[in-house]
Design a protein that fits this description.
Bound molecules: zinc ion, fe (iii) ion
Number of helices: 22
Structural class: alpha/beta
Low-confidence stretches: 1-11
Shape: globular
CATH class of the largest domain: Alpha Beta
Number of domains: 4
CATH superfamily of the largest domain: ATPase, nucleotide binding domain
Helix content: 25-40%
Strand content: 15-25%
Number of strands: 30
Largest sheet: 10 strands, mixed
Length: 764
């Protein structure tokens, strides 16, 4: 919450105050908001933008009320970090309130807002046959529309956006200049007379979709591939074309009422679905989901659902509904459901323009729908899930970027570059940490180019040159080489230290705490693959208090996508190596693998929690080979009904090693659903026991939970409940993903503290 320091003294007297408002207060309609409030309360004075945010002077009676209203009724896209109020001497100038022109030199907008979904007022215009923007796919106002994805540089002004090429018509210009208008200083304002146009009429797009076509549709941050989610042939063709073995597709429906026909949605989930970020939300399928093609989300009880966020999305549903007037139809279930998946062939970055779409999507898309408003910055859809009653980001992208995360302390400007998977970058300015959009896995040249482009854009928008660049300790990553090539001092940060620091940073926690990192694999200080770690973290320092009992990775990295290999490693560990070949030969060269395990050849050890999930899934026969990352763990979680702990299922030795061999042994030959209950329940109980013992030994009560496994709702909620029951205070990731998508924040927070210490000591 902002610290709104109300002026002291009575509320009735005549006062004059100078207000400084900090945060995301430019480009969001804040000055008209101040203007309207002041006018309605008969206050005199002025308001303006400057290099620090919004500055105002108000005079009259009831100034304290005015200040509270300023905060309570702030425009939808505003984010108020602080309101500073200073009393000054009242003047006897005549009344009236004015919006002053910003002083150009100092008026550099401090932030670009994230892209926002169509607001209720614009939606009403979109479906009002009498409005001049009726069915106009690019309508927007001060409270909604594209921002980050169309902005080249600061200040955030029309000439710096991809709307620069569209001259305002007389009507739009009038709205733009009128402080009483919703479009006052709305940079992307446009209408059918002066704005961008779609290459294909909406009715034709819908007709193609209904005829089973796969349509490449230009959106806010890139193209989507779209098809009718109820058409098995179309979804099957899309799946085949994207070579996406079983990885769930997201589905877009018209509104909440429609979403409730295919998924179970509680209040918290409804809020995330229809909130400003409009991410894809993982929801439990309801019986109605059977009406969707089976290939949308095969074999999982969850469905990724998203509501429309651009006018074009809404128009597709409007067309399908028979073009009703008004917006009431959105509150009734609509039949149309669309698969909306990123047009990123081969896992490479999103397609962003029509020519590129024609080239890269040839053979996938049956039709390409383009428009003439260029996408400046590519950005994927965000992905979220509700865990323990609150939203958890799984992928932080469109809708959330570039809103900063507040660090516990201001630090010198540092850049952090993540690791290898789900990479994001992070740049700090004071106590604000700006994360880039989700970039992807840095294992092809186009993604690496996109990463470099995103870092350059971040530096341009944030306006700071880093004094220190943090990267993962792994020496062979593309991100590490990129960091080392920047010609700035670098800092190697251990992977799980960064995971824990990210959660601490997000919670503003400054000081020692325990960290439980449950992850895929990350490079350990001893060069081995860590991933189930209990750490004591204190700022830029940490120590490893313990780890999961190691399993072999038979055959090396390939084991990460073949859970049956982890099952073999578990059998070997349990002294049941002779059973590997008879039990697992149908999945691959099990006998040869047993031999490798016996000889300890090409079997590097790992303490990864993700691989422990794979071993459990493999032993239970739930998933032998993963078609996509974490498939086995998701399948296993999907089977859980009532988790229960196996008494004596774990042990903890003097070195702090948590051994779950007894649990793994108990999974063999067990019914998969029963095994999923036993695995989750025992793992949670063991991790709570382990953390509680360490907390007591260290005299700490805060435990940060991080790593990709925390996406698992059963695990995350079990840990939170279990730790709280032991009197501990768990901290979980929220706005920043617990997986590698949040690493850059943790790296930046650690590097920021190191840079601060160095500057305190006079070292540069
Ligand atoms: Zn609007
Ligand atoms: Zn116009
Ligand atoms: Fe990780």
């Amino acid at each position: 919450m902002p610290d709104a320091a109300a002026p002291a003294g009575g509320t009735g007297g005549l006062r004059r105050c100078r207000l400084r408002i900090r945060g995301q207060v430019q480009g969001v309609g804040f000055r008209p908001h101040v203007f309207a409030l002041a006018e309605s309360r008969r206050l005199s004075g002025w308001v303006t933008n400057d290099g620090e945010g919004v500055l105002a002077e108000v005079q009259g009676r009831g100034v304290a009320d005015f200040v509270s209203a300023l905060v309570d009724q702030a425009p939808p896209l505003a984010r108020i970090d602080a309101v500073e109020v200073d009393d000054c001497v009242p003047t006897d100038e005549a009344g009236g309130f004015a919006i002053l022109d910003s002083d150009r030199a100092g008026a550099v907008a401090t932030e670009v807002p994230p892209d926002a979904p169509v607001c209720p007022d614009c939606l009403a215009e979109l479906f009002d046959p009498a409005d001049r923007r009726y069915r106009y796919p690019f309508l927007t106002c001060t409270h909604c529309g594209p921002r980050f994805s169309i902005t080249r540089a600061l200040p955030y002004d029309r000439p710096q956006t991809s709307m620069a090429g569209f001259a305002l018509c007389e009507s739009c210009a009038r709205e733009y200049r009128d402080p009483a208008d919703r479009r006052f200083h709305a940079q992307p304002v446009a209408c059918p007379a002066c704005g961008p146009h779609l290459s294909t009429p909406v009715e034709e797009i819908l007709a193609r979709l209904r005829a089973g076509a796969i349509v490449a549709l230009k959106g806010l941050g890139g193209f989507h591939l779209v098809c009718d989610a109820r058409d098995p042939a179309a979804v099957g063709r899309l799946r085949h074309a994207k070579q996406r073995d079983g990885k769930p597709f997201a589905v877009m429906v018209a509104g909440l009422a429609s979403a409730r026909t295919i998924a179970e949605i509680d209040a918290a989930e409804a809020a995330v679905l229809s909130g400003l970020e409009r991410p894809v939300v993982l929801l439990r399928k309801s019986a109605g989901a059977a009406g969707l093609a089976g290939a949308v989300a095969p074999g999982l009880p969850w469905l990724g659902v998203m509501l429309p966020y651009t006018p074009l999305h809404y128009l597709l549903f409007h067309e399908a509904a028979g073009r009703p007037a008004g917006t009431a139809w959105l509150d009734r279930p609509q039949c149309l459901a669309l698969v909306m998946t990123s047009a990123n062939p081969g896992g490479e970055p999103l397609v962003r323009d029509g020519a590129e779409a024609a080239e890269r999507l040839a053979g996938i898309a049956d039709a390409i729908v383009d428009h003439d408003r260029p996408i400046v910055v590519r950005s994927d859809d965000g992905v979220a899930r509700v865990v323990a009653g609150k939203p958890l980001a799984i992928r932080r992208a469109r809708g959330a970027v570039p809103r900063p995360v507040r660090l516990p302390q201001p630090v010198p400007p540092v850049l952090a570059v993540g690791a290898q998977m789900k990479v994001t970058a992070c740049l700090t300015r004071g106590a604000d940490a700006f994360l880039s959009q989700h970039i992807g896995d840095l294992d092809d040249a186009p993604t690496l180019d996109f990463f470099e482009e995103a870092v350059a854009h971040l530096i341009r928008l944030v306006g700071r040159a880093p004094v220190l660049v943090a990267h993962d300790r792994h020496p062979d990553l593309a991100s590490t080489r990129f960091a080392e090539g920047l010609g700035v001092a670098t800092l190697a940060v251990q992977h799980h230290h960064a995971h824990i620091a990210a959660v601490a940073a997000e919670h503003g926690h400054d000081g020692p705490l325990l960290g439980l990192a449950l992850d895929g694999v990350g490079y350990g200080d001893d060069g081995t693959a860590w991933g189930g770690e209990l750490l004591r973290v204190d700022g830029a320092a940490y120590c490893r208090l313990g780890h999961l009992g190691a399993l072999a990775l038979p055959g090396g990295d390939v084991a990460a996508s073949q859970p049956w290999r982890m099952a073999a490693a578990a059998l070997h560990r349990l002294g049941r190596g002779a059973e590997i070949a008879p039990r697992l030969s149908q999945h691959g060269p099990a006998a040869a693998l047993a031999d490798l395990l016996d000889r300890g050849v090409r079997c590097p050890p790992t303490t990864s929690a993700g691989r422990l999930f794979d071993a459990a899934a493999g032993l239970l026969g739930v998933c032998a080979v993963s078609g996509y990352e974490a498939e086995a763990a998701m399948q296993l979680e999907g089977l859980v009904r009532a988790p229960r702990a196996l008494p004596g299922g774990w042990s903890i030795d003097d070195e702090g090693v948590l051994d779950l061999s007894v649990l793994l042994d108990a999974l063999i030959d067990r019914d998969p659903a029963d095994g999923a209950d036993l695995f989750h329940g025992t793992l949670v109980a063991a991790l709570v026991d382990w953390s509680a013992r360490a907390a007591e030994a260290c005299g700490l009560d805060r435990v940060a939970l991080a790593g990709g496994c925390l996406i698992n709702k059963v695990l995350a909620e079990g840990l939170v409940d279990g730790l709280e029951a032991r009197g501990l205070r768990p901290l979980t990731a929220r706005a920043v993903p617990p997986n590698d998508g949040g690493l850059s924040l943790g790296q930046a927070w650690i590097a920021g503290q190191v840079a601060q210490d160095r500057s305190d000591c006079g070292v540069d």
